[in-house]
Design goal:
- By secondary structure, this protein is mainly beta.
- Helices cover 14% and strands 45% of the residues.
- It has two helices and ten strands.
- The protein has helices spanning 2-24, 145-148, and strands at residues 39-44, 49-50, 54-72, 75-93, 102-111, 116-125, 131-136, 156-160, 169-172, 183-186.
- Strands 1, 2, 3, 4, 5 and 6 form a six-stranded mixed sheet that branches. The protein has a two-stranded antiparallel ribbon with strand order 7-8. The chain has a two-stranded antiparallel sheet with strand order 9-10.
- The termini are far apart.
């Protein structure tokens, strides 16, 4: 009976140690637990709109980044090799005009241990609208309508666009709500 008590006294501490390790989450058979996952941050585009054919990302991982793959939808558009850096900033160019109005950018990063992370960003193309501003007259007030009746006047405008400006057309109407065109002026 005495030997049975001694045996129980020796096995209880091992059982308690096993219970403590189990409660703390020892995962000896499953490999190491990652507490430093790969992070991917979009530098461009940052939101849901895109107006240039490029993707710029920062990838960070303490296990060192090996490579970054870029996708539009399911189509792979490029791979950049990181050279085993913990922080890797890279840019991938693509043809924006060949893409639909709305699409998803996907970036997949791999570290030197083969671990991977993925981040998606749905985007839509910004409509490319020319910008125009009137230089003369500087303000169109109701009192200016007297100037325009039966007299010559000058309209000066400037326009800008990424693809250039071919022509500026100004339409003059008697009143804002009237559809009858008085005059049309063009730069061409």
């Amino acid at each position: 009976m005495l030997s049975h008590r001694l045996l129980m006294a020796r096995t209880i501490p091992l059982f308690v140690l096993f219970a403590i390790l189990s409660a703390w989450g020892c995962n000896c058979g499953d490999g190491p637990v990652r507490d430093d996952p790969i992070t991917i941050k979009f530098l461009y585009p940052t939101g849901g709109e895109i107006d240039q054919g490029r993707i710029r990302v920062r990838v960070e991982d303490l296990n060192k980044v090996e490579r970054v793959e870029f996708y539009i939808g399911k189509k792979k558009i490029g791979t950049k090799t990181a050279g085993e850096k913990t922080t890797f900033v890279t840019t991938q160019q693509f043809d924006l005009n060949a893409q639909p109005d709305a699409f998803t950018i996907r970036v997949v990063a791999f570290d030197i241990n083969g671990e991977k992370a993925e981040k998606k960003l749905p985007v839509r193309k910004i409509q490319d609208v020319p910008k125009i501003r009137f230089l003369k007259p500087t303000k169109l007030l109701p009192s200016h309508s007297k100037i325009f009746v039966g007299k010559k006047f000058t309209i000066q405008a400037e326009a800008s666009h990424l693809k250039g400006i071919k022509e500026i057309v100004v339409n003059l109407f008697p009143k804002p709500d009237q559809k009858e065109l008085l005059k049309q002026c063009s730069t061409e």
